[in-house]
Write a structure and sequence with these properties.
By secondary structure, the chain is an alpha+beta fold. The chain is about 45% helix and about 20% strand.
């Protein structure tokens, strides 16, 4: 197989780089303190129905903790109070929006970060948001029950020195996905629950199909590296099934909040 024969069809999506989400993204890539605070906020705050004063107080406490944590971090102890305070102001603005829009921004946040991270300069590398993927003009896995599934962020480089492809499915918490992925069909009668079970398993099947394709159908000289992963704001100790921590589902790795933190310099120095 040859990477040059892949095509990615993605509709223009400015929601990842517009409005208040863009403002938040632009702040978190300026300072790691802001990055850590935003990651904590979007993971722990499920809706915007809480009192704004209480949220501000919680964010101020998180700010203090993040600053202390970074003081003991050998990799990066930079903490910019002005940037973090500006971020807190932007996050509190989310509580004046309707809850549906808040939920969309919360879900899109991690996609915006990964999309930014994988955006490269140069004509040989491109990043796509929820693309339909074809090979030699034929839709990949068109006969599979997961044929209409898409992955949030896909990166592909076809340069001679970097032939690589990466696929990232973004999950703010992973809780709902894991709950339904491992749920037994035979013990479920709720139509909505059955729908969620099918959805999670199709997503996993879709990602696994591409992982198997990359790992078995390419020569090493035709594909230098590949990655298929879930990305989440959840800490590793919160990703569990039956009280056991999960680091991957099948062949698909899970990039946790800790891993995102360790990748921060790579994320901001991506160009």
């Amino acid at each position: 197989m040859n990477l040059n024969n892949f095509r990615f069809y993605s509709s223009e999506n400015n929601s990842l780089n517009s409005g208040i989400l863009k403002t938040i993204k632009d702040l978190v890539v300026l300072n790691r303190g802001a990055f850590e605070l935003a990651n904590h906020f979007f993971y722990t705050v499920p809706d915007n129905q809480q009192d704004i004063k209480e949220i501000k107080q919680k964010l101020e406490k998180v700010k203090v903790r993040v600053e202390l944590d970074l003081e003991f971090d050998e990799l990066d102890n930079e903490f910019d109070t002005k940037i973090v305070d500006k971020l807190i102001g932007e996050l509190t603005k989310l509580f004046s929006l309707d809850n549906q829009l808040f939920t969309k921004i919360r879900n899109d946040y991690i996609e915006a970060i990964i999309f930014f991270w994988k955006t490269r300069s140069g004509k040989y590398s491109k990043v796509f948001h929820e693309p339909e993927i074809s090979y030699k003009r034929k839709k990949c896995f068109s006969k599979g029950e997961y044929s209409n599934i898409k992955c949030d962020v896909v990166y592909c480089s076809t340069s001679r020195v970097d032939k690589s492809i990466e696929m990232y499915e973004c999950k703010t918490t992973m809780k709902v996905f894991i709950k339904y992925f491992f749920k037994n069909f035979s013990n479920t009668t709720s139509p909505s629950a059955l729908k969620n079970i099918r959805s999670s398993r199709r997503k996993q099947a879709y990602l696994s199909a591409f992982y198997n394709l990359f790992s078995s159908k390419f020569k090493k000289e035709d594909l230098h590296s590949y990655q298929v992963a879930y990305v989440t704001l959840a800490p590793q100790n919160q990703i569990k099934y039956k009280n056991e921590e999960i680091k991957k589902i099948g062949p698909i790795n899970i990039i946790t909040r800790e891993k995102l933190s360790s990748l921060y310099q790579t994320i901001i120095n991506h160009q």
